[in-house]
Amino acid sequence: MYNVVMKESRRQKRGDSALKSSLIFRAVIMTLCSVLLVVCLLFIISIYANSNKADLAEAEDRTSLSAQPTIEATNIPDVETPTPKISAPNDTPQPTDEIIVSEYYTIVLGDENTSVANLQVRLMELGYMDYDEPSSTFNYATQSAVMLFQRAQDMEMTGIADSTLQELIFSDQAPAYQVKISDSGADIRSLQYRLNELGYYDAKISGYFGPNTEASVLSFQMQNGLLANGVVSYEDWQLLYSSDALASVRYEEVTPSPTPTKAPRTPKPSTNSGASTPKPSNTGSGSNPTSTPKPTSSTTGGGSSSYSHSPSGIIECAKDQMGKSYVWGDEGPNTFDCSGLVYFCLKSCGVSTSRVTARSFSQKSSWELVSSIDDLREGDLVFFKSDTSDGVNHTGIYIGGGRFIHASSSKGEVVRSSFSSDSTQYWNRNFVCGRRVFG
What we know:
Layout: H1 2-67, H2 69-80, H3 82-86, H4 93-102, H5 114-125, H6 140-152, H7 163-169, E1 178-179, H8 186-197, H9 211-223, E2 232-233, H10 234-240, H11 249-254, H12 258-265, H13 278-285, H14 311-320, E3 325-326, E4 335-336, H15 338-348, H16 358-362, E5 368-370, E6 381-386, E7 389-400, E8 403-408, E9 413-418, H17 426-429, E10 431-436
Parallel strand pairs: 3-4
Antiparallel strand pairs: 1-2, 5-10, 6-7, 6-10, 7-8, 8-9
Helix pairs in contact: 5-6, 14-15
Protein backbone atom coordinates (compact mmCIF):
# COMPACT_ATOMS: atom_id res chain seq x y z
CA MET A 1 0.00 0.00 0.00
CA TYR A 2 2.77 2.29 0.91
CA ASN A 3 4.62 1.50 -2.28
CA VAL A 4 1.59 2.29 -4.29
CA VAL A 5 1.24 5.64 -2.65
CA MET A 6 4.93 6.42 -3.20
CA LYS A 7 4.75 5.53 -6.86
CA GLU A 8 1.74 7.70 -7.24
CA SER A 9 3.53 10.58 -5.58
CA ARG A 10 6.55 10.27 -7.85
CA ARG A 11 4.38 10.13 -10.87
CA GLN A 12 2.62 13.31 -9.76
CA LYS A 13 5.97 15.13 -9.20
CA ARG A 14 7.18 14.19 -12.64
CA GLY A 15 3.95 15.51 -14.07
CA ASP A 16 4.35 18.80 -12.22
CA SER A 17 7.92 19.11 -13.36
CA ALA A 18 6.94 18.47 -16.95
CA LEU A 19 4.17 21.00 -16.67
CA LYS A 20 6.55 23.63 -15.32
CA SER A 21 9.03 22.95 -18.10
CA SER A 22 6.28 23.24 -20.64
CA LEU A 23 5.09 26.50 -19.18
CA ILE A 24 8.63 27.92 -19.12
CA PHE A 25 9.21 26.83 -22.72
CA ARG A 26 5.97 28.43 -23.79
CA ALA A 27 6.90 31.65 -21.97
CA VAL A 28 10.30 31.75 -23.67
CA ILE A 29 8.70 31.11 -27.04
CA MET A 30 6.18 33.83 -26.47
CA THR A 31 8.91 36.22 -25.35
CA LEU A 32 11.00 35.47 -28.43
CA CYS A 33 7.98 35.92 -30.62
CA SER A 34 7.24 39.24 -28.94
CA VAL A 35 10.84 40.39 -29.45
CA LEU A 36 10.79 39.29 -33.06
CA LEU A 37 7.49 41.04 -33.52
CA VAL A 38 8.90 44.24 -32.02
CA VAL A 39 12.03 43.99 -34.20
CA CYS A 40 9.93 43.46 -37.27
CA LEU A 41 7.76 46.40 -36.37
CA LEU A 42 10.81 48.60 -35.81
CA PHE A 43 12.31 47.44 -39.09
CA ILE A 44 9.11 48.15 -40.91
CA ILE A 45 8.88 51.56 -39.24
CA SER A 46 12.51 52.43 -40.17
CA ILE A 47 11.94 51.39 -43.77
CA TYR A 48 8.84 53.50 -43.88
CA ALA A 49 10.63 56.42 -42.31
CA ASN A 50 13.56 56.17 -44.74
CA SER A 51 11.21 55.98 -47.67
CA ASN A 52 9.45 59.07 -46.37
CA LYS A 53 12.79 60.86 -46.05
CA ALA A 54 13.72 59.91 -49.60
CA ASP A 55 10.35 61.10 -50.79
CA LEU A 56 10.80 64.33 -48.87
CA ALA A 57 14.31 64.80 -50.27
CA GLU A 58 13.07 64.09 -53.76
CA ALA A 59 10.22 66.46 -53.19
CA GLU A 60 12.65 69.13 -51.96
CA ASP A 61 14.87 68.60 -54.99
CA ARG A 62 11.86 68.90 -57.22
CA THR A 63 10.81 71.99 -55.33
CA SER A 64 14.26 73.56 -55.67
CA LEU A 65 14.37 72.74 -59.32
CA SER A 66 10.94 74.14 -59.85
CA ALA A 67 11.90 77.20 -57.80
CA GLN A 68 14.80 77.98 -60.19
CA PRO A 69 13.27 77.56 -63.62
CA THR A 70 14.28 81.06 -64.76
CA ILE A 71 17.97 80.69 -63.85
CA GLU A 72 18.28 77.30 -65.47
CA ALA A 73 16.27 78.38 -68.46
CA THR A 74 18.52 81.40 -69.10
CA ASN A 75 21.78 79.59 -68.38
CA ILE A 76 21.10 76.54 -70.51
CA PRO A 77 20.60 78.48 -73.76
CA ASP A 78 23.80 80.52 -73.09
CA VAL A 79 25.77 77.29 -72.83
CA GLU A 80 24.10 75.53 -75.68
CA THR A 81 23.58 78.48 -78.05
CA PRO A 82 27.19 78.84 -79.35
CA THR A 83 27.18 75.33 -80.79
CA PRO A 84 24.44 75.89 -83.35
CA LYS A 85 25.47 79.53 -83.91
CA ILE A 86 28.96 78.59 -84.99
CA SER A 87 27.44 77.05 -88.06
CA ALA A 88 25.39 80.19 -88.67
CA PRO A 89 27.95 83.04 -89.20
CA ASN A 90 25.29 85.58 -90.10
CA ASP A 91 23.79 85.35 -86.61
CA THR A 92 26.95 85.27 -84.50
CA PRO A 93 28.43 88.62 -83.32
CA GLN A 94 31.86 87.26 -82.36
CA PRO A 95 32.99 86.21 -85.85
CA THR A 96 31.73 89.58 -87.17
CA ASP A 97 34.08 91.46 -84.80
CA GLU A 98 37.01 89.36 -85.96
CA ILE A 99 36.17 90.17 -89.58
CA ILE A 100 36.30 93.90 -88.79
CA VAL A 101 39.77 93.52 -87.27
CA SER A 102 41.02 91.40 -90.15
CA GLU A 103 40.16 94.06 -92.72
CA TYR A 104 43.38 95.81 -91.65
CA TYR A 105 45.68 93.43 -93.44
CA THR A 106 49.44 93.99 -93.34
CA ILE A 107 50.86 96.51 -95.81
CA VAL A 108 54.56 97.05 -96.36
CA LEU A 109 57.00 99.00 -98.50
CA GLY A 110 56.13 98.62 -102.18
CA ASP A 111 52.45 97.75 -101.71
CA GLU A 112 49.98 99.68 -103.83
CA ASN A 113 46.28 99.81 -102.98
CA THR A 114 43.58 102.09 -101.56
CA SER A 115 44.40 101.03 -98.00
CA VAL A 116 47.72 102.88 -98.35
CA ALA A 117 45.94 106.13 -99.21
CA ASN A 118 43.70 105.77 -96.14
CA LEU A 119 46.75 105.11 -93.99
CA GLN A 120 48.54 108.18 -95.37
CA VAL A 121 45.57 110.44 -94.62
CA ARG A 122 45.40 109.18 -91.05
CA LEU A 123 49.15 109.65 -90.52
CA MET A 124 48.82 113.19 -91.89
CA GLU A 125 46.01 113.92 -89.44
CA LEU A 126 48.18 112.69 -86.56
CA GLY A 127 51.15 114.82 -87.66
CA TYR A 128 53.55 112.11 -88.85
CA MET A 129 53.45 113.29 -92.48
CA ASP A 130 52.91 116.63 -94.20
CA TYR A 131 49.41 117.05 -95.57
CA ASP A 132 49.42 116.23 -99.26
CA GLU A 133 47.34 114.65 -101.99
CA PRO A 134 47.25 111.00 -100.83
CA SER A 135 48.55 108.24 -103.07
CA SER A 136 48.05 104.48 -103.13
CA THR A 137 51.78 103.66 -102.99
CA PHE A 138 53.46 102.57 -99.76
CA ASN A 139 56.73 104.41 -100.34
CA TYR A 140 59.70 105.25 -98.11
CA ALA A 141 58.00 108.38 -96.80
CA THR A 142 54.97 106.35 -95.69
CA GLN A 143 57.26 103.75 -94.14
CA SER A 144 59.11 106.52 -92.31
CA ALA A 145 55.83 107.94 -90.99
CA VAL A 146 54.86 104.49 -89.68
CA MET A 147 58.25 104.25 -87.97
CA LEU A 148 57.75 107.67 -86.34
CA PHE A 149 54.41 106.46 -85.01
CA GLN A 150 56.07 103.31 -83.67
CA ARG A 151 58.79 105.45 -82.08
CA ALA A 152 56.18 107.55 -80.29
CA GLN A 153 54.71 104.33 -78.89
CA ASP A 154 58.11 102.91 -77.91
CA MET A 155 57.58 100.05 -80.35
CA GLU A 156 60.13 98.37 -82.55
CA MET A 157 60.53 100.65 -85.57
CA THR A 158 59.89 98.10 -88.33
CA GLY A 159 57.94 100.36 -90.70
CA ILE A 160 55.47 97.49 -91.23
CA ALA A 161 51.81 98.42 -90.86
CA ASP A 162 50.30 95.15 -89.66
CA SER A 163 46.65 94.78 -88.65
CA THR A 164 47.35 95.41 -84.96
CA LEU A 165 49.25 98.63 -85.66
CA GLN A 166 46.60 99.91 -88.06
CA GLU A 167 43.91 99.16 -85.51
CA LEU A 168 45.74 101.50 -83.11
CA ILE A 169 46.45 104.15 -85.76
CA PHE A 170 42.78 104.35 -86.75
CA SER A 171 41.51 104.30 -83.15
CA ASP A 172 40.52 107.28 -81.02
CA GLN A 173 43.46 106.49 -78.73
CA ALA A 174 46.07 107.02 -81.46
CA PRO A 175 48.72 109.46 -80.17
CA ALA A 176 49.60 112.55 -82.19
CA TYR A 177 53.19 113.23 -83.21
CA GLN A 178 55.63 113.80 -80.36
CA VAL A 179 59.36 113.57 -79.65
CA LYS A 180 61.00 112.86 -76.32
CA ILE A 181 64.27 111.90 -74.70
CA SER A 182 66.19 109.02 -76.34
CA ASP A 183 64.50 109.62 -79.73
CA SER A 184 66.69 110.21 -82.77
CA GLY A 185 66.22 111.17 -86.39
CA ALA A 186 66.19 113.99 -88.91
CA ASP A 187 63.32 115.69 -87.08
CA ILE A 188 65.41 115.80 -83.88
CA ARG A 189 68.25 117.43 -85.79
CA SER A 190 65.84 120.03 -87.15
CA LEU A 191 64.45 120.54 -83.63
CA GLN A 192 67.95 121.24 -82.32
CA TYR A 193 68.61 123.76 -85.11
CA ARG A 194 65.37 125.57 -84.38
CA LEU A 195 66.01 125.64 -80.62
CA ASN A 196 69.49 126.91 -81.42
CA GLU A 197 68.06 129.59 -83.70
CA LEU A 198 65.90 130.81 -80.81
CA GLY A 199 68.79 130.73 -78.36
CA TYR A 200 67.76 127.74 -76.25
CA TYR A 201 70.26 125.16 -77.46
CA ASP A 202 74.04 125.53 -77.73
CA ALA A 203 75.24 121.91 -77.74
CA LYS A 204 76.19 119.72 -80.71
CA ILE A 205 73.63 119.27 -83.47
CA SER A 206 73.48 115.49 -83.25
CA GLY A 207 69.97 114.40 -84.16
CA TYR A 208 69.74 112.64 -80.78
CA PHE A 209 67.29 113.81 -78.11
CA GLY A 210 69.53 113.73 -75.04
CA PRO A 211 69.60 115.60 -71.72
CA ASN A 212 70.82 118.87 -73.33
CA THR A 213 67.96 118.83 -75.82
CA GLU A 214 65.48 118.01 -73.07
CA ALA A 215 66.74 120.94 -70.97
CA SER A 216 66.41 123.26 -73.97
CA VAL A 217 62.88 122.03 -74.63
CA LEU A 218 61.95 122.64 -70.99
CA SER A 219 63.29 126.20 -71.24
CA PHE A 220 61.32 126.80 -74.43
CA GLN A 221 58.14 125.42 -72.90
CA MET A 222 58.45 127.56 -69.77
CA GLN A 223 59.28 130.70 -71.77
CA ASN A 224 56.26 130.14 -74.04
CA GLY A 225 53.72 129.17 -71.37
CA LEU A 226 53.48 125.51 -72.40
CA LEU A 227 53.31 122.41 -70.25
CA ALA A 228 56.93 122.01 -69.17
CA ASN A 229 57.48 118.25 -69.36
CA GLY A 230 60.39 118.01 -71.80
CA VAL A 231 58.23 116.21 -74.38
CA VAL A 232 57.60 118.08 -77.64
CA SER A 233 53.96 117.49 -78.57
CA TYR A 234 52.55 118.24 -82.02
CA GLU A 235 51.15 121.53 -80.67
CA ASP A 236 54.53 122.43 -79.19
CA TRP A 237 56.17 121.67 -82.54
CA GLN A 238 53.73 123.94 -84.39
CA LEU A 239 54.42 126.83 -82.02
CA LEU A 240 58.19 126.26 -82.07
CA TYR A 241 58.19 126.55 -85.87
CA SER A 242 55.97 129.62 -85.97
CA SER A 243 56.64 133.34 -85.91
CA ASP A 244 54.90 133.45 -82.52
CA ALA A 245 57.65 131.43 -80.81
CA LEU A 246 59.38 133.48 -78.12
CA ALA A 247 63.17 133.43 -78.17
CA SER A 248 65.23 132.72 -75.09
CA VAL A 249 65.54 135.69 -72.74
CA ARG A 250 69.22 134.83 -72.35
CA TYR A 251 69.66 134.88 -76.12
CA GLU A 252 67.91 138.24 -76.42
CA GLU A 253 70.20 139.69 -73.76
CA VAL A 254 73.40 138.15 -75.16
CA THR A 255 72.84 138.91 -78.84
CA PRO A 256 73.33 142.74 -78.74
CA SER A 257 76.53 142.55 -76.71
CA PRO A 258 78.87 140.97 -79.32
CA THR A 259 78.30 143.86 -81.75
CA PRO A 260 79.90 146.65 -79.66
CA THR A 261 82.63 144.38 -78.30
CA LYS A 262 83.77 143.20 -81.73
CA ALA A 263 83.68 146.69 -83.28
CA PRO A 264 86.58 148.25 -81.29
CA ARG A 265 88.66 145.08 -81.47
CA THR A 266 88.53 144.77 -85.25
CA PRO A 267 90.88 147.74 -86.10
CA LYS A 268 93.65 146.64 -83.70
CA PRO A 269 94.67 143.41 -85.46
CA SER A 270 94.49 145.07 -88.88
CA THR A 271 98.26 144.70 -89.18
CA ASN A 272 97.81 140.92 -89.20
CA SER A 273 96.34 140.95 -92.70
CA GLY A 274 92.85 140.74 -91.37
CA ALA A 275 93.49 137.67 -89.23
CA SER A 276 90.55 138.49 -87.03
CA THR A 277 88.24 139.30 -89.94
CA PRO A 278 87.54 135.68 -90.95
CA LYS A 279 85.95 134.98 -87.57
CA PRO A 280 82.80 136.96 -88.32
CA SER A 281 82.56 135.22 -91.71
CA ASN A 282 82.87 131.84 -90.01
CA THR A 283 79.85 132.61 -87.93
CA GLY A 284 77.89 132.85 -91.12
CA SER A 285 78.95 129.41 -92.25
CA GLY A 286 78.37 127.89 -88.84
CA SER A 287 81.43 125.63 -89.10
CA ASN A 288 82.55 126.02 -85.48
CA PRO A 289 79.45 127.23 -83.61
CA THR A 290 79.96 128.59 -80.11
CA SER A 291 77.38 130.66 -78.27
CA THR A 292 76.41 133.58 -80.49
CA PRO A 293 77.02 132.06 -83.96
CA LYS A 294 74.63 129.18 -83.26
CA PRO A 295 71.48 130.88 -84.48
CA THR A 296 73.19 131.68 -87.78
CA SER A 297 74.16 128.03 -88.21
CA SER A 298 70.53 127.10 -88.68
CA THR A 299 71.12 127.27 -92.41
CA THR A 300 71.49 123.54 -92.59
CA GLY A 301 71.62 122.92 -96.31
CA GLY A 302 73.11 125.09 -99.05
CA GLY A 303 73.59 127.86 -96.50
CA SER A 304 75.02 130.83 -98.39
CA SER A 305 73.35 132.57 -101.30
CA SER A 306 74.27 130.22 -104.12
CA TYR A 307 71.34 131.35 -106.33
CA SER A 308 70.29 134.81 -107.44
CA HIS A 309 67.95 136.83 -105.30
CA SER A 310 65.12 136.69 -107.83
CA PRO A 311 62.15 134.63 -109.02
CA SER A 312 64.37 132.81 -111.50
CA GLY A 313 66.87 132.10 -108.71
CA ILE A 314 64.37 130.41 -106.43
CA ILE A 315 62.90 128.45 -109.36
CA GLU A 316 66.36 127.25 -110.39
CA CYS A 317 67.06 126.18 -106.82
CA ALA A 318 63.74 124.32 -106.57
CA LYS A 319 64.37 122.48 -109.85
CA ASP A 320 67.79 121.40 -108.61
CA GLN A 321 66.14 119.62 -105.68
CA MET A 322 63.76 117.59 -107.87
CA GLY A 323 63.82 113.89 -107.04
CA LYS A 324 65.36 114.31 -103.58
CA SER A 325 63.64 112.32 -100.86
CA TYR A 326 60.91 113.60 -98.58
CA VAL A 327 61.76 113.32 -94.87
CA TRP A 328 59.51 114.76 -92.18
CA GLY A 329 61.11 117.69 -90.33
CA ASP A 330 64.15 118.02 -92.60
CA GLU A 331 65.32 121.11 -94.50
CA GLY A 332 68.09 119.83 -96.73
CA PRO A 333 70.44 119.71 -98.36
CA ASN A 334 69.55 116.14 -99.38
CA THR A 335 66.10 115.53 -97.87
CA PHE A 336 63.17 117.86 -97.21
CA ASP A 337 59.69 118.22 -95.92
CA CYS A 338 57.45 120.78 -97.66
CA SER A 339 58.31 123.85 -95.55
CA GLY A 340 61.92 122.68 -95.29
CA LEU A 341 62.25 122.84 -99.09
CA VAL A 342 60.82 126.36 -99.23
CA TYR A 343 63.10 127.46 -96.39
CA PHE A 344 66.15 125.95 -98.09
CA CYS A 345 65.40 127.66 -101.41
CA LEU A 346 64.68 131.03 -99.79
CA LYS A 347 67.96 130.93 -97.85
CA SER A 348 69.85 129.83 -100.96
CA CYS A 349 68.53 132.93 -102.71
CA GLY A 350 69.63 135.22 -99.90
CA VAL A 351 66.21 135.73 -98.31
CA SER A 352 66.48 136.29 -94.57
CA THR A 353 63.90 134.10 -92.88
CA SER A 354 63.50 131.65 -90.05
CA ARG A 355 62.68 127.97 -90.41
CA VAL A 356 58.92 127.94 -89.82
CA THR A 357 55.88 125.95 -90.88
CA ALA A 358 53.91 126.39 -94.08
CA ARG A 359 51.22 128.19 -92.09
CA SER A 360 53.67 130.74 -90.69
CA PHE A 361 55.18 131.33 -94.13
CA SER A 362 51.66 132.00 -95.46
CA GLN A 363 51.08 134.62 -92.73
CA LYS A 364 54.23 136.68 -93.41
CA SER A 365 52.68 140.08 -94.05
CA SER A 366 55.84 141.61 -95.56
CA TRP A 367 55.32 139.36 -98.60
CA GLU A 368 52.55 140.41 -100.97
CA LEU A 369 49.38 138.32 -100.70
CA VAL A 370 48.13 136.58 -103.86
CA SER A 371 44.53 135.45 -103.53
CA SER A 372 43.88 133.73 -106.83
CA ILE A 373 45.60 130.98 -108.82
CA ASP A 374 45.21 133.11 -111.95
CA ASP A 375 47.22 135.93 -110.35
CA LEU A 376 50.25 133.79 -109.46
CA ARG A 377 53.66 134.71 -110.91
CA GLU A 378 56.86 132.72 -111.28
CA GLY A 379 58.73 132.47 -107.98
CA ASP A 380 55.63 132.97 -105.78
CA LEU A 381 55.11 130.66 -102.84
CA VAL A 382 51.85 128.69 -102.93
CA PHE A 383 49.92 127.43 -99.90
CA PHE A 384 47.30 124.73 -99.50
CA LYS A 385 44.95 123.19 -96.99
CA SER A 386 43.65 119.62 -97.21
CA ASP A 387 40.31 117.88 -97.58
CA THR A 388 40.22 117.19 -93.84
CA SER A 389 41.68 120.47 -92.52
CA ASP A 390 40.86 124.13 -93.14
CA GLY A 391 44.20 125.62 -92.08
CA VAL A 392 47.29 125.98 -94.28
CA ASN A 393 49.39 122.82 -94.00
CA HIS A 394 51.35 122.52 -97.26
CA THR A 395 53.52 124.78 -99.39
CA GLY A 396 55.47 124.83 -102.64
CA ILE A 397 57.14 127.15 -105.19
CA TYR A 398 55.24 128.27 -108.29
CA ILE A 399 57.29 127.93 -111.49
CA GLY A 400 54.71 129.22 -114.01
CA GLY A 401 52.40 127.52 -116.48
CA GLY A 402 50.09 126.32 -113.70
CA ARG A 403 52.90 124.19 -112.17
CA PHE A 404 54.67 124.22 -108.83
CA ILE A 405 57.46 122.27 -107.13
CA HIS A 406 57.01 120.86 -103.64
CA ALA A 407 58.29 118.14 -101.32
CA SER A 408 55.48 115.61 -101.49
CA SER A 409 54.97 113.24 -98.56
CA SER A 410 52.63 110.97 -100.52
CA LYS A 411 54.99 110.77 -103.51
CA GLY A 412 58.00 110.50 -101.22
CA GLU A 413 60.16 113.07 -102.99
CA VAL A 414 60.42 116.58 -104.41
CA VAL A 415 58.06 116.61 -107.41
CA ARG A 416 56.34 118.89 -109.88
CA SER A 417 52.55 119.14 -109.69
CA SER A 418 49.99 121.16 -111.64
CA PHE A 419 46.81 123.10 -111.21
CA SER A 420 43.94 122.09 -113.44
CA SER A 421 41.15 123.78 -115.30
CA ASP A 422 38.90 121.55 -113.21
CA SER A 423 38.25 123.43 -109.97
CA THR A 424 37.39 120.17 -108.19
CA GLN A 425 40.91 118.79 -108.69
CA TYR A 426 42.80 118.36 -105.39
CA TRP A 427 45.25 121.27 -105.70
CA ASN A 428 42.63 123.64 -107.10
CA ARG A 429 40.02 122.98 -104.43
CA ASN A 430 42.59 123.19 -101.63
CA PHE A 431 44.49 126.30 -102.79
CA VAL A 432 44.46 128.94 -100.05
CA CYS A 433 46.76 131.74 -101.23
CA GLY A 434 50.15 132.72 -102.55
CA ARG A 435 52.89 135.02 -101.26
CA ARG A 436 55.14 137.13 -103.51
CA VAL A 437 58.60 137.22 -101.96
CA PHE A 438 60.26 138.99 -104.91
CA GLY A 439 58.28 142.11 -105.86
